Amino acid sequence: MKIELSRSALEWQAKARKYADEYLQPHEVEAELNGGCLPDDITKRNKQRAIELGFSAIDVPKSHGGLELPMVEQVAIWEQLGRVTNALSWCFSEPQEWMFEACSEEQIKNYILPMMLGEKKDCYAITESGPGSDVAGIEATASKDGDDYILNGEKWYVTSANLADFFWFQAQLPDENDDALFLVDQGTAGIEMTDNPLFSHTYAAHHPTYQFTNVRVPASQRVGESGDGMAYTRSWFRHERLMIGARSCGAAARLIEDATTFASERMVGGEPLSEKQAIQFMLADCATELWAARLMTFEAAAASDRGDDLKALHNRCSMVKLFVSEAANRIVDRVLQVFGGRGYMRENVAERFFRELRVDRIWEGTSEIQRLIIARNLLKRGLDEM
Ligand SMILES: Cc1cc2nc3c(=O)[nH]c(=O)nc-3n(C[C@H](O)[C@H](O)[C@H](O)COP(=O)(O)OP(=O)(O)OC[C@H]3O[C@@H](n4cnc5c(N)ncnc54)[C@H](O)[C@@H]3O)c2cc1C
Questions:
Q1: Selecting from 2.60.40.10, 3.30.720.120, 2.40.110.10, 3.30.2320.30, what CATH number does the domain 122-223 have?
Q2: Distance of alpha carbon 330 from alpha carbon 307, whole angstroms
Q3: Per-residue pLDDT, 230
Q4: Is the dihedral of CA 43, 70, 76, 315 positive or negative?
Q5: Is pLDDT at 227 greater than 80 in this prediction?
Q6: Mutation test of ligand 1: which of 90, 133, 198 has the most ligand atoms closer than 8 Å to its C-beta?
Q7: Does the pTM exceed 0.85?
């Protein structure tokens, strides 16, 4: 299933595929059976190789020593990394371009560039138990006190916080009628992990709950200018929603390939399973949905590279996230069915992706929230401007 890509995009695609196949995929079952963790030396080797290949610098501006790849090339990379289960591709951190617009030179030096170099890892603390999907209703507060801010609030599902060096902490500023992001070092007095629930997937990165009580940070830890707080969070959402699309395409491709091989080899009633029309129909639906998903994802990335209108782009990233995550869930459900009982074993890629792909319909804004964004765009701007 070929999509016309530049020579450079094809080279990155091949590089990422080789890395995924050789460094990550062989360790999936081991990770699955060990709470998502691999031996330290393997994790270090995988991280080091990813950094050598340049994956941690793909969205970093050249002016800061990065590769500044077009979004289409970034999607081509993350599509291949998405073929791997157990989030083994999260072994390196990757700064995003908006961080260089949002952060001060000091913040870039102390937090963002160390991510690119593999020296620091971040985690994102936005969601709260009360407002949930309603990001605009966040209740955590930041209050000015001399040259500092005092942060208070409880944050849920802080992915990777168990491995991270610092938080992006989203708060409202009641005294300034504003909201903002803050960079907060892990271990600052007043931060407490209050819960660490188990989730469906088996990842080394956990999603704990954190209580921030009178956490004092210098005002220099505030990110960006007044009025910019939610704008940066929206940039984060656009990037992540597009990359969820990319990773889901990669996962779906691997699932379809494996199911096709299995169905061709598995003998049922004296003939290959693939001869059964019921199985052929499932595989055909999977391949067709993947084709549509890939076209959407790469076109949204191309629109970003063309510099299309930001609101239209935001809407398209929502469409990508909605359609591709839901298509990938339909695909993995069919593929697991093709494998029969074997598909329900944890050593089978379909079983692991069956659990792992489910959260893509929830995090970075649920499917319902994406539908709201799309519907509001349609009603406000009309089909031609979407
Ligand atoms: C594994 C995991 C990791 C996560 N990692 C992070 C992280 O690193 N950082 C972070 O900040 N957050 C993270 N999240 C949080 C995630 O973004 C939220 O779970 C998600 O935005 C939904 O919020 P909620 O769980 O409170 O659901 P709720 O808002 O309570 O929604 C419950 C249901 O109601 C629906 N709903 C809500 N509002 C509306 C509406 N207006 N119209 C129609 N339907 C609606 C939702 O779609 C959903 O089906 C993570 C979540 C999970 C599960």
A1: 2.40.110.10
A2: 32
A3: 77
A4: positive
A5: no
A6: 133
A7: yes
